Amino acid sequence: MVSKTLPQILGYLDRHPTASAEEIRQALYVTKENIQYHLKKLLQDGTIKRTIQPERKQNPRGRPTYLYRLSEQSRQGNLPALADKLLEIVLKATPSLAAQQDLLKQVASSMFPFQPSPNQTKNLRQTIQRLNKHHYQAAWEARVPGPYVIFRNCPYASIIKEHPELCQLDCEILATVLNSSVTQISKMDLDSRKPPACTFLIQAL
Question: Where do the structural domains in the chain lie, given as residue ranges?
Answer without folding.
Answer: 5-76, 79-204
